[in-house]
Write a structure and sequence with these properties.
The complex is a heterodimer.
Chain A lengths: L3 E4 L1 H19 L5 E6 L2 H17 L5 E4 L30 E9 L3 H10 L7 E11 L10 E7 L5 E5 L1 H4 L3 E5 L6
Chain B lengths: L16 H17 L14 E6 L5 H12 L3 E6 L11 H9 L5 E6 L4 H8 L3 E7 L5 H15 L6 E5 L6 H12 L3 E5 L15 E3 L2 H7 L2 E4 L15 H8 L3 H6 L5 E3 L12 H4 L6 H21 L4
Parallel strand pairs in B: 1-2, 1-3, 3-4, 5-6, 5-8, 6-7, 8-9
The chains are: A alpha/beta, B alpha/beta.
Amino acid sequence: MQPKVIINSKAFQLILKRLCYELIEQHGDFSDTVLMGVQPRGSELGERIQRELKSITGIKVPFGKLDITFFRDDFRRTEKLLLADATEIDFVIENKKVVLVDDVLYTGRTIRAAMDAMLVYGRPSAVELLVFVDRRFSRDLPIQATYVGKRVDSIASQRVSVEWDKIEGEDKVLMFSTDKEK
Amino acid sequence: MDQISVQHLLGIKDLNKKDIDLIFSAADNFKEVINRPIKKVPSLRDITVANLFFENSTRTKLSFELAQKRLSADIINFSSGSSSVKKGETLIDTVNNILAMKVDMVVMRHPNAGAAKFLSENVNAVIVNAGDGAHEHPTQALLDAFSIREKLGEVKGKKVVIIGDILHSRVALSNIFCLKKLGAEVMVCGPATLIPKFIGELGVKVEHDLMKALQWCDVANMLRIQFERQDTKFFPSVREYIMMYGLNKEKLDQLKKNIVIMHPGPINRGVELSSDVADSEHSIILEQVENGVAVRMAVMYLLASKLKR
């Protein structure tokens, strides 16, 4: 089955911009704020948000990439080997407001791991979560996002994929109905 | 990503190139982890590891122990000096008694070649060979190759000479297997008495002239003379060995090129390596030690990943 486009490139831009304005509304001059993208796919969103914020406000908000692999709760529970991506964080988050950034919020387990992984770099004063797509009603853990691009209803056999201009050639969000397709 | 192809790490001989690349890629991640403000990840928090050292070790034991702690594993340590082995208990009995305490992984060093393989066939735990007699020392070879890759960009096509007591060295054998699998050219160099007769069949060059070997190589891995394993005299005197095969600044300066100096430790300063060379900018001996922790974390992480809950 062909995947369904649930956010096209035009809507994608609008959502990205809206998320940035929501951040500006909450964080003002971003003097105590850092962005942290969850590897691998959240980093792409984080970078785009950073770039967009720069073009709107002229402020370059510190941005880091956080790998959560070694903090996941499914090690030795899947057939697949869990291998890490790079972590690139060149600041401490002590007393900072951290905005965790990920592309899709689904069970909430990744974000649970991210919160553990993040604490290695200090004790933040507050943590918020920004996601592009929130697959609502599918949470395993009591975790909710502060900023949401779009809420979608989906069932477990479906897969939601955020694609990027830089990686896949076009900004869009797709929904696959079987997990065989890619 | 595919899992590593082996259940135990008994020797480099059992690994394929893909396994080694996988270990290196995980070691890259762990090297980043051990340079974080908090150098610990919870991956192996439900794994218990027994470190069984039936032979003396400082570096390897500390390195494994640190690697296990960085992965949050629970560990128990055992060294033969202070144990019932002295009272005549067999290897299997000792290990089975330890496994009865619900241990998932055993890291073992033993003076007899094949001890790790024997254990893997007879007990129900993941075995990591930390050196078995003069046979293999796989994690040392992995960290050596990892250090070469880090220093020179890649291992493939590089010329590596292993110098010294090849005959008694498990490090040499594991290094030869590992470097060959990664596409390096390997040479061994030392007095004829300390080079096994048919080592050429492993596809390595043999050279008895140190200066020729140094001229040829990109990397020189200096081995320690293992006096404790030598029951007869293999060379007339230590002084003569130093003159023929000891590396010092003078010999290095004659080369007119830069080579990388490695040593698995412990160094006999003034024998195989003079202090000015050991402490020079050409030496990556301390990088090897740091990489050792990362590589051992990678090995234990990858093997534990295959342990079913």
